[in-house]
Backbone:
């Protein structure tokens, strides 16, 4: 991918959430990206729990939340190297969360920050997963970003997934009504 | 989430992270976490600090005047915006064929639900008249034609009200309502409007762009469009029940020189039962789970969004019970 294409992607305002959704459900990605965000209005207990968790988990840590461009990072840890941290409520979508984190790392690298690793925290299961960003990841991530743009350029969202995970998704009512 | 109704005059203010209603003799503190609407039927003093707090907590404040007429709402700043959906909404308004298609759907849904109210009471002749009118919906060539068709249907519907309720009705009179039944309908419709409005604000739909009603109406007319579908089920049925069970009596109305309005006691009876109606649950056949009546509004908005996206034609909520 050349630098023109990268600029192009920035313009498309791809957020970390969108990267994660790309690996979860293309329909969800499309709806979310078009501003049809149902996360805030769903009474879905999981969604609310996730939000509260996100808002409160690291309050006592003395680290700032750092945000730039479309990226939001829970906190950065300075140990010679910068680490990206993300808090997630369950390991169900681990692959998606890993790519979300790798996207943040990539964005930091683009800014010239020395960062090649991060940690996903799962406080509810008291687990943490280390994520390392490899050169191969960069290529895969570029493919995913292009894939995201392809999904978003479609006039209609993808058909509903029809999978078991739909029942716990904030978009369930919307998709199945 | 709950709805609070304020009937006594006083001051509503923010007190740290709660709301305090200060009356002459007492102070009531309400935790904000579970409020989503506040209806105010009395004189209240309030300040911008309160409104800012309500906006932050996504709470709507609706005002009714002394006579129970709806004055307006404070609605928190839109948190959901979608330029994409807005463009589609406008497109469906500007394209006459698309607008008419949606407008017809609203009327079709309303008439289905109206018919169901009569069907249960075995008004066979009026039901077949409504069927005839419904068949004409598809042939209407303009919004005006559609509106007049709807007016015909409504007249036939309201003609049964004196018999159903045993109360004087005459014809529908709005500003001002000429008798108790009309006052009740106006009040109930205003309540329904606010419920729809709140749900619209939770989606990315723009409440000012409507299809059956003209967007130029001073109100958020999309809420008027959608309320048409729900009024027969949520409001009319409730009115029949309250009268037939003798829960509302002539004494709940004040007869002014020129018009009639619900007294505080009458409003209390109505909103209590209205609230219970909204909280009732029913097994949804498509989603295969129990959902609240009030969620039916949200689901219809989802269907409307899908229609606007071009994904699936909107089919309004048709009462099945
Ligand atoms: S309900 Fe299913 S299809 Fe719809 S967005 Fe969620 S996961 Fe995708």
Residues:
């Amino acid at each position: 991918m050349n630098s023109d294409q990268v600029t192009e992607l920035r313009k498309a305002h791809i957020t970390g959430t969108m990267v994660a959704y790309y690996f979860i459900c293309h329909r969800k990605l499309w709806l979310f990206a078009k501003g049809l965000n149902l996360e805030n209005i769903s009474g879905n207990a999981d969604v609310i729990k996730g939000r509260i968790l996100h808002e409160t988990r690291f309050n006592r840590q003395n680290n700032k939340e750092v945000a730039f461009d479309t990226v939001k990072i829970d906190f950065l840890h300075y140990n010679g190297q910068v680490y990206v941290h993300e808090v997630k409520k369950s390991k169900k979508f681990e692959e998606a969360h890993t790519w979300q984190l790798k996207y943040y790392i990539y964005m930091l690298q683009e800014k010239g920050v020395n960062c090649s690793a991060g940690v996903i925290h799962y406080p509810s299961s008291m687990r943490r997963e280390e994520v390392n960003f490899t050169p191969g990841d960069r290529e895969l991530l570029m493919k995913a970003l292009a894939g995201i743009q392809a999904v978003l350029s479609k006039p209609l969202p993808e058909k509903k997934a029809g999978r078991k995970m739909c029942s716990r998704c904030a978009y369930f009512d919307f998709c199945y009504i | 989430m709950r709805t609070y109704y304020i009937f006594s005059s006083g001051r509503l203010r923010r007190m740290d992270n709660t709301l305090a209603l200060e009356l002459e003799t007492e102070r009531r503190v309400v935790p904000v976490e579970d409020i989503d609407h506040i209806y105010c039927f009395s004189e209240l003093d309030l300040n911008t600090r309160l409104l800012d707090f309500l906006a932050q907590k996504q709470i709507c404040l609706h005002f009714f005047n002394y006579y129970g007429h709806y004055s307006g709402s404070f609605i928190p700043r839109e948190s959901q915006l979608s330029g994409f959906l807005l463009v589609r909404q406008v497109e469906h308004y500007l394209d006459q064929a698309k607008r008419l298609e949606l407008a017809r759907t609203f009327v079709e849904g309303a008439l289905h639900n109206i018919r169901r109210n009569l069907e249960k009471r075995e008004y066979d002749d009026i039901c077949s008249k409504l069927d005839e009118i419904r068949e004409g919906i598809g042939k209407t060539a303009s919004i005006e034609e559609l509106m007049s068709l709807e007016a015909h249907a409504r007249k036939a519907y309201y003609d049964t009200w004196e018999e159903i309720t045993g109360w004087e009705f005459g014809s529908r009179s709005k500003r001002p309502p000429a008798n108790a039944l009309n006052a009740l309908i106006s009040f109930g419709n205003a309540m329904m409007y606010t419920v729809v409005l709140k749900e619209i604000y939770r989606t990315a739909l723009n409440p000012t762009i409507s299809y059956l009603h003209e967007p130029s109406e001073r109100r958020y007319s999309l809420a008027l469009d959608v309320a048409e579908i729900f009024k027969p089920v949520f409001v009319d049925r409730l009115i029949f029940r309250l009268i037939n069970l003798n829960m509302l009596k002539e004494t709940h109305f004040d007869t002014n020189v020129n018009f009639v309005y619900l007294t505080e006691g009458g409003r209390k009876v109505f909103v209590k039962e209205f609230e219970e109606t909204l909280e009732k649950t029913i097994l949804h056949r498509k989603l295969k789970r129990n959902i609240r009546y009030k969620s039916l509004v949200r689901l219809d908005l989802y269907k409307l969004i899908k229609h606007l996206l071009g994904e699936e034609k909107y089919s309004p909520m048709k009462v099945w019970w």
